[in-house]
TrEMBL record:
Transmembrane segments: 125-145, 188-205, 253-273, 285-305, 325-344, 360-383, 395-417, 450-470, 512-536, 556-576
Protein's name according to its UniProt entry: Integral membrane protein
Region spans: Disordered: 50-74, 767-791
Record key words, sorted: Membrane, Transmembrane, Transmembrane helix
UniProt source species: Streptomyces chryseus
Biased composition (Basic and acidic residues): 50-59
Taxonomy, superkingdom: Bacteria
SUPFAM superfamilies per UniProt: alpha/beta-Hydrolases
Length: 791
């Protein structure tokens, strides 16, 4: 490939194209179309690359800082590739993020709030409700760990000679051995190490990613005022939007303390309940004191979670050291005291049935349902203040997503508990005649039993949309053939193009799918909670004596639900294990994180980290540094999720740099996904503000693209933001220029379309001519502000 030389001064000065890839990631060699690439700034996690021939392409060596007149002019800018895929799919540890999926979904609910103006208290209430729901997910996870370790293993199996007899690893805890550790309280004290270790691991992972992601300083806004800069900045343009260091540290402390307190409550509840029945006044008094202390700790955790939200209007570099240090430490001390209290000798204490406190799962489920309903009420109030027809689900996308997070958490925790119970029971069925142990709480069985009815609803919904897609495909045939008037009609070719377009249009049906799924989940979950509390029996036993159809349906739902949750758990573990070993599978899972972890951790500190808090400062520093150093023109070209990163980075630029930057997006979900689901941050008003602030912007899209689409910005300047829909495929049939059938590209290979080069060239032509560069000719590339990948 020939060397690309920068243009002469009369061609407008140095020009740079900064390429940002989309979901799934790629390599710099593929992005730049050259096997020889050089990393010019960044590290192994995220970096900017150039072709080896272009490393020195924009160095200023002539008089006035311009290139020598002997260099040839060119019609293309110097290409650079920003590769960020390792932020979400780098090493094998990323596979463990699958366990954090409910936390990530809950964090998304925070950002799906409707657009509103003047409802400060309502917006704050929305954030508080989401943070409380996220806290309940942490409690649910640690409660599930307590269920497995304390109840099923230490209380039920170790307390039954039939269960522990063939398990040598439980020998020192088994009651038939009669050892020092065989007393129920001491068995529970040992088992409490497992959920406590899970809590500590979550704290460690969150602290480690916090240091790598949230602690990246964004580009300083600068001290000089700009009369053209709007006084009210969009949220993504706020200086502290991509710097959530303080809030994540505060939430991490609260959730860690909640985890330790949950373990302590499971221990104290069992021991104190026995002491109030059989022990002396001293142990009973200690039990009451510990429970009161745990209650006070829980109130303090809730207060910390509700007290402070995000600070975006300024760069908040302080930390709440008292909260981050004392709150988890105090909870750990309480846990240690509870362990000592539970391990106290109680000779007459015998473990039987389930561990006291199994109604805790019902309390958590009830609290989550109430929070989701309250969140829906608040979201509707916000939407009615500023209604927008393009907003998904009339502003209820956040509550629906929160309901999905609760469902995922319930399925994952229930699945683990049921699989462990089946494994411990051996050939028997926990809780059924012939079973060795009582098994997990009844509510978990009821929740598993509602999975088959939910699948029936989803299958009916899928059939409805399948019929609609088939009809849409048939209706498109005439329009597709009209777009290629010079080609001979081909029924097979037309059907294939129509099928791709119809399938791509299903993306716009996502609100209906999520709405029906979340509503059905809420109703079925409420029915499971009521059934478990009213009957106190598993569905099969509760339906005994009713009509044959009802009884058989209940038995089938219970058996099928248990089987489905078991298969799902096995597939989940298998997928995670494969992703840990196979980089290709890990990259596939990374697509999920590319979409879900774009947003900062505003509600759950144990969610996978926000890669944009590293990527946006990287891009902002690079664009501001290059334009400031060379005075040249820059086109940032973002594909798919890369277009979202590009837009967020342009919002963060200081005005002097933004005037020298053009935005080229292709296959962009900015309006189709982000604008509809996150209207407060990418809604119509926000995208129109971005169009006004950036010097020029063009968006390429196709009707066959299931992700990208038009941004629907009504700009005053010609030619506008959206292009006409690109032809896909480029040729209908075989031609002299296309002797082989042209592929239907859909979401990929936008750069292969001739319109891409035309639009990029036009954007460069619309940017102002080269300004006076600020860097001396002897400063090498990669130093100074342009060489910084993060603040």
């Amino acid at each position: 490939m020939p060397r690309v030389t920068p243009p002469r001064d009369d061609d407008g000065g140095p020009a740079l194209e900064l390429l940002v890839h989309g979901v799934g990631g790629t390599t710099p060699q593929e992005m730049l179309g050259d096997p020889r690439t050089v990393r010019i700034t960044g590290d192994e996690t995220a970096a900017v690359y150039r072709r080896a021939e272009d490393v020195e392409a924009d160095r200023t060596t002539g008089p006035g800082g311009q290139v020598p007149a002997g260099d040839e002019a060119r019609d293309r800018p110097v290409p650079e590739a920003y590769v960020w895929c390792n932020l979400t799919s780098g090493n094998g540890a990323r596979a463990l993020w699958l366990l954090l999926l409910p936390f990530m979904v809950a964090n998304l609910a925070h950002w799906m709030q409707p657009t509103t103006r003047g409802l400060t208290r309502t917006v704050r209430m929305y954030g508080v409700l989401v943070r409380l729901l996220a806290l309940s997910l942490t409690v649910l996870l640690i409660a599930a760990a307590c269920e497995v370790a304390l109840d099923l293993t230490a209380w039920q199996c170790a307390g039954s000679p039939r269960c522990s007899g063939d398990k040598s690893w439980l020998g020192f805890l088994s009651t038939d051995r009669g050892g020092w550790w065989s007393e129920p309280g001491r068995r529970l004290a040992v088992a409490a190490l497992v959920p406590a270790a899970v809590t500590g691991l979550l704290w460690y992972l969150s602290h480690r990613t916090w240091s790598a992601y949230e602690s990246q300083r964004p580009l300083p806004a600068g001290a000089e005022p700009d009369p053209d800069e709007p006084t009210a900045r969009p949220a993504l343009g706020m200086p502290g939007f991509w710097y959530g260091r303080r809030l994540v540290a505060r939430l991490r402390a609260a959730h860690t303390a909640a985890g330790f307190l949950t373990v302590a409550a499971a221990l104290a509840g069992a021991a104190a309940g026995h002491d109030r029945r059989a022990a002396g006044p001293l142990l009973e008094a200690i039990g009451w004191l510990l429970e009161l202390a745990l209650l006070a700790g829980a109130v303090l955790v809730v207060w910390v979670v509700c007290r402070r939200g995000r600070s975006e209007s300024r760069l908040d570099v302080t930390l709440d050291k008292a909260v981050t240090a004392l709150l988890p430490g105090s909870a750990l001390v309480l846990l240690a005291l509870t362990v000592l209290y539970a391990a106290w000798s109680r000779p007459g204490w015998v473990s039987a049935g389930r561990l006291p406190g199994d109604r805790a799962f019902g309390i958590v489920a009830l609290a989550q349902g109430g929070l989701v309903v309250a969140l829906g009420v608040v979201a509707l109030a916000m939407y009615r203040r500023v209604p927008d027809a393009r907003t998904a689900m009339r502003g209820l996308g956040g509550p629906a997503t929160a309901m999905l997070a609760c469902a995922l958490g319930g399925v994952m925790t229930g699945g683990v508990a049921q699989r462990v119970a089946d494994w411990l029971d051996g050939a028997g069925t926990p809780g059924e005649p012939g079973g060795v142990i009582a098994g997990p709480p009844v509510l978990l069985t009821w929740q598993a039993s509602v999975i088959p009815p939910l699948l029936v609803v989803l299958l009916a919904l899928g059939a409805f949309f399948a019929v609609g897609t088939w009809r849409a495909r048939r209706a498109m045939a005439g329009d597709i053939e009209a777009e290629y008037p010079d080609a001979d009609p081909d029924v097979v070719r037309t059907r294939r193009i129509a099928r791709v377009r119809a399938m791509a249009a299903l993306t716009d049906r996502a609100p209906a799918i999520l709405g029906v799924t979340s509503a059905a989940t809420l109703v079925l979950g409420a029915a499971a909670l009521v059934g478990a509390w009213v009957t106190g029996k598993v569905p099969g036993r509760a339906a005994a004596g009713t009509a044959d159809f009802v009884a058989s349906a209940a038995q089938a739902a219970q058996a099928l639900g248990s089987w489905l949750i078991g298969v799902g758990f096995i597939l989940f573990v298998t997928w995670g294990r494969r992703a840990y070993r196979d980089p290709a599978a890990r990259r596939t899972i990374g697509i999920l994180w590319d979409v879900g972890t774009f947003w900062p951790r505003a509600s759950h500190p144990f969610a996978p980290p926000c890669y944009a808090e590293r990527a946006v400062p990287d891009l902002t520093w690079r664009m501001a540094g290059w334009t400031d150093r060379t005075g040249g023109r820059l086109v940032i070209s973002g594909h798919s999720q890369g277009s979202v990163l590009a837009a967020a980075s342009v919002w963060q630029l200081p005005p002097r740099a933004r005037r020298r930057v053009a935005l080229l997006t292709h296959g962009s979900p900015l309006e189709r996904l982000y604008g509809r689901w996150f209207p407060a941050f990418f809604g119509t008003a926000c995208l129109e503000a971005l169009s006004d602030e950036v010097h020029c912007w063009r968006n390429l899209w196709r009707r066959t693209d299931p992700i990208g689409g038009p941004v629907r910005v009504k700009g005053d300047q010609a030619p506008g933001v959206d292009t006409e829909a690109l032809m896909d495929p480029l040729a209908y049939g075989r031609t002299r220029e296309q002797p082989l059938p042209a592929p239907v590209l859909g979401h990929s290979d936008y750069q292969a379309d001739p319109a891409f080069d035309r639009e990029r060239t036009a954007l460069l032509g619309r940017l102002p001519p080269c300004a006076v560069p600020r860097q001396r000719p002897d400063i090498p590339l990669g130093q100074g502000s342009s060489g910084r990948s993060s603040g």
